[in-house]
Design goal:
- By secondary structure, the protein is α+β, with helices and mostly antiparallel strands.
- It is built from 4 helices and 5 strands.
- The chain is elongated and about 65 Å long.
């Protein structure tokens, strides 16, 4: 659970706060995988996920016309998706030892000569690699959403 009791759940971008939700419709998604070979043949990947979206629904007590509330929602989405993506990558590394994300291709492009020796045992190398995930989602529009109409003026967080 994040700040102010906002809970993020499921893959299409909902936040739950005191019984309310914020729905984010994501468009313009992107990813960047930056491999790094460290002395001792350690492999580290920096994964950056980006996206832009529009608030489709706001049933919380947050007034999303206020920049600080919008920043709060963006930060909560970022943190939640970082956790979820990290969990998926870790599970795939540990349980399946299969590179379904294209990390090997990123190594091959950046370090072609080292890749020749790494690819022979890539499943084991991949399962031991450190992966750091950073998510940056930006709300480009809140549409016509505001705080819930059922709230009184003194219940709205500005």
């Amino acid at each position: 659970m994040g700040k102010r009791g906002i809970k993020v759940f499921n893959h299409y971008g909902h936040h739950s706060s005191r019984g309310g939700t914020v729905s984010l419709d994501l468009t313009k998604l992107g990813r960047h995988i930056q491999p790094l070979l460290i002395q001792g043949n350690r492999i580290k990947f920096y994964v950056t996920l980006t996206g832009q979206g529009m608030i489709r629904e706001n049933n919380t007590n947050l007034d999303l016309a206020e920049t600080k509330n919008l920043d709060l929602i963006e930060n909560e989405f970022d943190k939640k998706y970082e956790q979820e993506v990290q969990q998926v990558i870790t599970k795939v590394q540990q349980e399946y030892k299969a590179d379904i994300f294209g990390f090997g291709e990123a190594i091959h492009r950046k370090y072609p000569s080292q890749w020749r020796s790494l690819k022979k045992n890539w499943e084991a190398e991949f399962s031991q690699a450190d992966v750091i995930v950073k998510v940056n989602l930006n709300v480009k529009s809140v549409g016509l959403t505001g705080p819930s109409l059922q709230l009184k003026e003194n219940q709205i967080k500005k």
